[in-house]
């Protein structure tokens, strides 16, 4: 009568080893408990990755797990928050067998450790649909110090981490094997774009500096143009971006050299998981120095002004026109 | 260039009105912020409901929303926690059109208000599979005061809220329309079981009393027998339950009168969303009085002893033997 259920065995075998936080209670309770540091706010974010939408069902399960956690870590990074832990909800099709789960848990555990964000609790269920992995990540900031979208002010500089467009271009390459040849990408460039789509590099190393210096920030997940437009809308300002200053990888540059119109995909396609931030002129040097110390590439791409909307202009000063600013599921 | 995406319109129209907590920032940011009351712990729980697993795709969307929130509220109740808010992740098939979403948001908003648990943030995405609704609920308790599974001690009494078995019997009735006739249920009894499956009644009104008086508690979601066995395993004790004292609704009694073997389904089938708790003898009267004041039925069903496992015994003293103690997805 005391045989544990399949669900309990699965949790004990694959996920209990990840529940290193004392508040996770070894995943042996209904809920986790978290004692917030005095003088801190919790920062809460939730994002799901769905098979067929955010990853391909045959992607390596360890990398699917990393993506699921990292898209959430990226939100914490943009908010200037330090990761405290996460809860995981797994809806799994029958194809997610033990070897799939073992690899998934391995990837998840590696990232939980690397980013200092332990598993606090979770839920597992079956689905007739694609694997759906929902993570809620919890971070902390000093009380009142979360970096918001609404703080951009005229005169602020606009900066962005890493490189933009790789994820959207990588998805295109993944979907259509002819693409890499058409864009004249070498093997390394092709691999770079595919990898950037599959495994985001969240900028948590920059979180503390963003909290200290940024006036506003946002995780770039649905396209730089649309996401910066959201910062501007909430802040009640406009942004002027010099398109040629937007940082691109060698691979993205190669693709754009073959098809210049791909600039639209790069700037509006999403899946970047970089941070776009605004920073007052007096704080720019400090943020740049902090980024350098943290090993995170940071590029100034434009400025904030009175008004509304976002303009991307080419070197000749002509505005780039996009069909839509952002990726949208709806 | 500034037309909001479909996803943004959907959030603004249906979900922003629910984001009444100041930390939700009107759903206009990457993350929510929550300032925990000084001297408190956060209690975190996550549960998904998946079409075809936890509800039927043609169930009314307002009730699907209520179920999604209530299964999480039930965990907070069992832990003695006061709801602080929740984040919502929606993976929706194309069949979830605007009228579906409107009804869903209406049900969700009504419960968020009724239980004092506001929407803090969320995520929406498409899926090729069934609607998958994942909620992470956050509650608060005084530091160190979360009611755990591990506190049951020999001599404690075992109590359970509400009635047991309705959810599992209701699911059976829902799946096979012949069932109600075979069990000789009248229309009202049939409706009662169906409703109990579809819309749980979480016992948040009892949370504060559980925190003050219970030595251990757990949300009964996978079957009373298996869930009580989990409390015993974590506490390192055994439980002896008098099966005839387990509270049953009139409808469940009618079904069992027709088919006595249904007692197994009632005790192991799950979907109860009641609370099973253990309480020291000195505190039992206080918990009973608090339950009465809160309008929550509370029934003493057995006791905790030295040993391991759970025994359910009939009036003749014979142990009931079950094929399995709990529902499991795996």
Give an account of the 3D structure.
The structure is a homodimer of 330-residue chains. With 330 residues, the first copy, chain A, is α+β, with helices and mostly antiparallel strands. Chain A folds into 2 domains: 6-28 and 38-142, 2-Layer Sandwich (60s Ribosomal Protein L30, Chain: A), CATH 3.30.1330.10; 157-313, Phosphoribosyl-aminoimidazole Synthetase, Chain A, domain 2 (Alpha-Beta Complex). Chain A has helices at 6-15, 61-78, 98-114, 166-175, 179-182, 187-198, 207-213, 224-235, 250-258, 263-268, 281-294; strands spanning 32-34, 40-50, 82-92, 119-126, 132-142, 157-161, 216-220, 238-242, 274-279, 298-305, 309-313. Chain A has a 6-stranded mixed β-sheet, sandwiched between helices. Chain A has a 4-stranded mixed β-sheet with strand order 2-5-3-4. The radius of gyration of chain A is 21 Å and the shape is globular. The interface between A and B is large, with 85 and 85 residues. β1 of chain A pairs antiparallel with β2 of chain B.
